[in-house]
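Shipment paperwork, digital attachment
Item: protein structure file
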Amino acid sequence: MTDTVERKALTKEHLLGVYRVMRTIREFEERVHAEFATGDIPGFVHLYAGEEASAVGVCSNLDERDTIASTHRGHGHCIAKGVDTGEMMAEIYGRRTGSCHGKGGSMHIADLSKGMLGANGIVGGGPPLICGTALAAKIKGTGGVSVAFFGDGASNQGTTLESMNLASVWNLPAIFVAENNGYAESTASTWSVSSDNIADRAAGFGMPGVIVDGFDFFAVHEAASEAIARARGGGGPTLLEMKFTRYFGHFEGDQQTYRAGEVEHARAELDCLKRFAARVTETGELAQADLDAVDAEIAVLIEGDVAAAKAAPLPTEADLLTDVYVRY
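Attachment content:
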């Protein structure tokens, strides 16, 4: 990233906004974790806590022209792309006021008005979608970019590999973000992924591949900024690999017998929010009081979202056959 871009992008207002979104994701996920334990949330949830720098570092470079496709671990991507947290919480609780009217739940939150194509219960389901939206942006000349977030498990899926090949063949404005948290469910990526780095596979598709410290917002922001600028300028797709770990299990209820100690180490030594706060306060770009005010603001926001979701109505039998088909 050039100095000119950095000065323009990372103003005090921008840094506060970045911290606010990362704190919102963390607070949202920690609260869903607590609420799920009460038994009031139907279905399954897969939490994004610990990975906030990836979603926010990428999406802070995007605008209303751009689209993203997510995964089963999609809450962070949704929030980073601007989906309303109140509607998200209501959706997780299965309420009519949810972003999908209570019919999708945690794994299927979507908001096309925000460019959020949807979380996805299909491993590797997102990359083909962004090839479509990227092609549309290219044909229409909007300057839009499409981003697919996917995990290390999806990096082995044919849909992902075929999408990367197609994006290169058609020179699409597409970014593939491999969020390598070390496990495909409970299977270690060191065992299941043939190459040492997912990013190394980019060479086979004629695109740049970049390995990024996924705990470092600034590293993610810079790598994503360069890839997105190249895509907008007609330079084609990029594969970014974020290396980090998730703080919770694959799903709520996962006993996590396959790992020990790494989460405690990550929370204490690598946490993206702590690293962000340390950097901006040490440089004087933000004061601790600024960050504390954001923390208090977000705590109130999420508390209100939970209360509103619990009070909202459930879908009725009359809602069963609504929103089934799209009419053009």
